[in-house]
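Q: My labmate handed me this sequence with no annotations at all. I'd like to see what the chain might look like in three dimensions before we decide whether it's worth expressing. Could you predict it?
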Amino acid sequence: MIGVTARSAFGFVLVMGVVNLFADMTYEGGGSINGTFLGQLGASAAAVSIIAGAGEFLGYSLRSVAGYIADRTGRYWWITFLGYFINLLAVPAMALAGSWQSAGALIFMERIGRAMRKPTVEAMLSYSTGKHGRGWVYGVNTALDETGATVGPLVVALALDLKADFRTAYGWLLGSSVLALGALAIARFMFPVPSKLQVGGPATSRAGGFKRPYWLYMAAGTCFAAGLMSYELVSYHLASSGVLSQRTIPVFLAVATGIGVVASLVLGRMYDRVGIGAVVLGVVLSAAFSPLVFFGGLWVTLAGLMLLGVGYATQDTLLKVLIASVLPEGKRNLAFGLFYLGYGAGWLAGSVAAGLLYETSRFGLVIFAMMAQLDSRTTAGTRRSVQ
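A: Here is what I predict for the chain of 387 residues:
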């Protein structure tokens, strides 16, 4: 392993960022057409939203199991590799789906694979936060994630523009899957023991078990997830309402994730300087996306999707940072896994509610989404009163 310096610690952040760049390119590229593809196969709006929500719940709830196993066995790299393998190869396999039920099953598999590797990656990254700051470490990693999430839908859009069908577009994503797995092998070779990255720097966890601030942050994440809708439902709305054509929906998703790249870096650096105020700003901006997306025309919808990008940056950067600030020593993987369990429960409840409200009252849908996200701001703010 290379010397334990601030530079090598940041090198680990960058290498894992490249892994996640290609990984996000794969499953966000697929995610940009999943909703439309399910609809083409005969799924209803409620089925699309519930499949997305149930998949996210599986993807989040199983992270606690993966985190617990990683802490108990120490086999975090083995678990990480297996998770990426399932996560990434389920996406191009969508090209073989013959019904919306089988496509839904592959969406579940992709989420399960992501569940297996997510807590181990977040825990490994936490060892570098003492030398570089929690906001900056997770902000840079998320920015690379979101870069891949921007490129992936553009690749799919290019495939569709070249008259390819959805199945061919999914097949194109096999290339980024292979690149992600190759980059992961390089990370394993260069950094076999990520815990050594904290040597010579500030402590990156606290002694003891789970304290009240941890559970407050978990509750805040649950509320935030309930109001942050899956892009499957958003894309279904954009296609069925005629606001965007099927070919341009992935492009608009790329714009949203491109905003997420910038937001991750800005909000991550802001957190290291001003603390929880950066979280409050991200939540408030994110809460404004739903009325613009569901009630607006072309340009208003674009503005709403940009705010949705801020929401995903808040989810992928700031919520991780909050949990990283209260990690118990020896239980890092479990801490991230349990947090995602609560987050997944909120996502499932919110997705079911959103799917049903979409078909009965879009005004009610918007009010629900905004209130759920704004309530997370209040819950996270309570943390300051218990410090």
